[in-house]
Structure formats: C-alpha cells, structure tokens
Design brief:
Blueprint: H1 2-13, H2 22-39, H3 48-59, H4 62-95, H5 97-112, H6 115-125, H7 128-153, H8 157-165, H9 170-208, H10 214-223, H11 227-263
Helix pairs in contact: 1-9, 1-11, 3-11, 4-5, 4-7, 4-9, 5-7, 6-7, 6-9, 7-9, 9-10, 9-11, 10-11
C-alpha cells in the first residue's frame, strides 16, 4: 500500500508533461495570426509578431526585470503565507472540531466573494504595494485548507490502527502515515491555487497600481491603447506562473523522493 501511495504522490508532484503539445500551440497561434490579419487593426487585435517584438523590446530594458521581480516576490509571498496558514488550519481543524466549525464560515465567505470585492475593500486597510500579497493569501487559503482537510479525513484508518498496535510515536505517525496520505491532496490543491494566486495578484495590482508592478504596466498599456504591450505583459504573467508552478512542484517531487528514501 505504501508503494502504491508513493507512486501516486510522485505522479502528482511531478510537473505534467502531457496535455499541451507544441503542434496545438502552433495551430492556435496560426488562428490568432489569421484573425489579426483579417481585423487589420492592432488596437483591436495585435498580431503575434507585433507582440513578439514588444516582448523582446522589454527583455532588453533593465527596468523590466525589476518590475518582474517586484510582482513575482509579492505573488510568491502571498502564496507561501496562504499555504502555511492553510496547512496549519487544516491540521488544527482535523484535530479539533471547534476549530473546524469556527473557520467554516470564513472559508465559505473567502471562496464565494468576488476577488474584485476583496480588492476594493482591502484598499481601505492595506497599502497598494502590499495588496497583492493579501489577495493572494486569501485566494490560496481556502483551496489548500480544503485539500489538507480532505487528505487528513481520507487517511486510511487501518494504517492508523497499525500505528497504534506497533506503538509508533506521533512524529512517526505524522511522517509515515499522514504525510503520504495527505500529500497528493495538497499537491493537487497547490496546483490550482498557484494559477488563481497569479490571476488575483495581478488583478490586485491593476486596481491598486503600485509602482514597479506588472499590473501597473498592464493598466498603462491599456490606457494608451498599446495592445501589443498588453499581450506581451500577459504572456510574461503566463510564463512566470508556469515557471513557478514547475519549480514548486519540482520541490515537492524532491521532498517525496527523500521521504521514500528514508522509508526504505
């Protein structure tokens, strides 16, 4: 059973190589190019080569990397803070029913209220440079909390009974029973939360307009009807989101392999 669980964890903690093929990407780029030629108006729909030129122009600017680092740091910090809080609350909620019932309305509200509403309300209390951290935290919290809670509740009771029979310490029960059972749920929730965290974080920057942020650049490009720049910054966000997801999942994969090695 342990080997089967670890195989499942390795698959879920490894970045997916299936699903998106280069030929399918090429087809959609070709469709985009044809539509742009038919429209023949860069303000309505920029051509792929205009967007590529805008993107390469940004790559040669020193300020581009400062902007990327600022937004990347804020979004990643919001994700990490939300993850830590969600894991702690998920464990506490699984252990104490009072905690679970206390935070149930909070999680429901956070999942249900539109992101724009949170951003507008948060602007009253939080400085614009820190808004994307707070919004990312809120987006990540209920998703990973639900994943951790579900993983703990789905833990095989026979394994826990076996741990009691062999008088395993709490640390060993946590390491060898709970972690392998919960990790696939955590990995799946993290993958979903990462994408939503980027969307919400950049949306918060577009509304709050902090200096040296991707959101500010997107808003400025939209204001001046610089559609190639809008597309270019959008592709930057997509690239950052995918790169960080791969990096985070790779770290989880390393943790899984180390866990498997210590078990053996």
């Amino acid at each position: 059973m342990y080997v089967r669980n670890m195989a499942t964890i390795r698959r879920s903690a490894t970045p997916a190589r299936e699903g998106i093929r280069l030929w399918s990407v090429a087809v959609w780029i070709a469709v985009w190019a044809v539509l742009a030629l038919v429209v023949a108006n860069d303000i309505v729909l920029a051509t792929p080569w205009a967007v590529l030129a805008a993107l390469f122009a940004k790559l040669t600017e020193a300020g581009f990397y400062l902007i990327v680092l600022h937004s990347l740091g804020k979004v990643v910090l919001g994700f990490l803070l939300g993850t830590v809080a969600a894991v702690a609350l998920g464990i506490a909620g699984a252990r104490f029913r009072l905690i679970r019932e206390l935070f149930a309305p909070v999680m429901l509200v956070v999942k249900s209220v539109p992101v724009a509403s949170f951003i507008i309300l948060a602007l009253i209390w939080i400085r614009p440079p820190n808004l994307s951290i707070f919004v990312g935290f809120l987006i990540v919290l209920p998703i990973i909390y639900a994943g951790v809670a579900e993983g703990i509740s789905s833990t095989d009771r026979r394994l826990l009974q076996m741990g009691q029979v062999f008088q395993l310490s709490h640390s060993r029960v946590l390491r060898y029973i709970y972690v392998p059972q919960v990790l696939p749920f955590f990995t799946g929730a993290s993958s979903v939360a990462l994408g939503l965290c980027w969307k919400a974080g950049i949306a918060a920057e577009i509304i709050s307009l902090p200096y040296y942020s991707i959101g500010e650049q997107l808003y400025t490009a939209k204001l001046y009807l610089d559609i190639p720049d809008v597309f270019a910054w959008t592709f930057v966000v997509i690239g950052l989101s995918l790169a960080f997801e791969r990096f985070f999942m790779a770290l989880l994969g390393i943790a899984v392999r180390r866990l498997e090695g210590t078990r053996r």
